[in-house]
Amino acid sequence: MSSSNQIPITSSELGNLWMTYQDKTMIMRFLEYFLEHVEKEETRQILQSYYERCAESAEFVKSIFQQEGAVIPAGFTENDVNKGAPKLFDYMYDVMYLHMMAKLGTSLYALYSTMSYRQDIRQFFRRLTTEAQEAYDQTTNVLLETGVLSRPPFVSMPKEVKFVQDKNYMAGGLNWFSNERSLNTIEVSLIHHSIETNLTGMQLMIGFAQVANNQEVRNHFIKGMELAKKIETSLGEFLRQDYIEPPATHAGKATNSTVAPFSDKLMMYNTSLLSTFGLGSNALGGAFSLRSDLPAKMALLAKNIFDFAKQGGKIMVKNGWMEEPPQVEDRNQLTKR
After folding, report:
1. Is the Cβ–Cβ distance between 74 and 323 less than 8 Å?
2. Per-residue pLDDT tens for 173-213?
3. Which of 293, 297, 298, 300 is nearest to 182 (CA)?
4. Distance between CA atoms of 214 and 216, rounded to whole angstroms?
């Protein structure tokens, strides 16, 4: 019987490993920059540890590709980061950024692990999931201890099991004559998650817009900033209707620096990745909400995110920044054989 590493990798494993290489080399460039400006030793240790793990992951992917005779992806290199640039983000943003990327990584790598079949690759994505969860735990602790992160609201504990009796439970703002019910805790959790992520993303877009070299790219980041604000405001209103204050933070603001620490290509890819994550979060939020007005709002926001992501893709293609994922065999070539 052949060992697992003698079994060729499948198309899904190839694609997911390729994406992982892009993501890990991107995060490494951000962490290299953040490590130059980090102030607290505890934060330095968290960033350095995750950087080393990202480097190990990138090397693992390279080794698999070499074994399979596949070209190594370009990804992102030291040419995509300007380590001498001044600090672009204020107090605690380095931790906030890793917190956001750990959220994304936990979801992404758990999904990849269920799309893998070769044992070593299953183990690899399981390890990445664990690493992302550990980074999330570490960054959450730091952000809570410093008062940067807002907890979701506390509610009274249920004392009895109830079943929905009224069909109006699924009604909402689309019906002008309905008496809207209060949000349930599942809906609150999804709204809180989306707002929290968009607060971090909005500051990222503000910083990117200040330093982008290409005017079209700069305008795109401004649109991203406005979209993140729109999402935060729109979803926050659902909480306010139930007298719940939406999450907010005093930290992580963009400084007044206009010196680019990252290449436009790197910033555009990061924005594209977060847009994809935002689409997934809105789809999840809409799917698990039973109030008709909330899925309708999330569907509208999802369309805005999709349009924004599509425009970003066009900009990346126009500037030669979009690396093409591995393809299946050309159907036209197959028919000519």
Report:
1. yes
2. 444 344 567 899 999 998 999 999 999 999 999 999 999 99
3. 293
4. 6
Contact in structure between 58 and 25 (CB atoms under 8 Å) = yes
Convert the pLDDT of each residue in 233-271 to its tens digit: 999 999 999 999 998 888 889 999 999 999 999 999 999
**Long-range Cβ contact pairs of 317-320 (< 8 A, separation 24 or more):** 319/214, 319/217, 319/264, 319/265
Measured N-to-C along each axis, helices 185-211 and 264-287 cross at an angle, to the nearest 10 degrees, of 170
**Mean pLDDT to the nearest integer, 113-135:** 97
**Would you call 283 exposed, middle or buried from its count of C-beta atoms within 10 A (0-12, 13-18, 19+)?**
middle
**pLDDT tens digit sequence for 94-107:** 999 999 999 999 99
Tell whether the model's pLDDT for residue 1 goes beyond 50. no
Give the number of other CB atoms < 10 A from CB of residue 272. 18
CB 169: neighbour CB atoms within 10 A?
A: 12
b/e for 126-145, b at 16 or more Cβ within 10 A?
ebbbebbbbbbebbeebbee
Measured CA angle at 55 (ends 205, 312), to 5 deg: 30
Residue 34 near residue 94, CB atoms below 8 Å: yes
Radius of gyration of the chain (CA): 22
Residue 100 CA to residue 34 CA, distance in Å, equals 15
End-to-end CA distance of the chain: 34
Tokens of 217: 């790219």
Euclidean distance between CA atoms 219 and 227, whole angstroms = 12
Yes or no: say if 267 and 208 are a contact pair by the CB < 8 Å rule.
yes
CA 264, CA 242: separation in Å to the nearest integer?
41
211 secondary structure, DSSP code: H
Whole-model pTM? 0.91
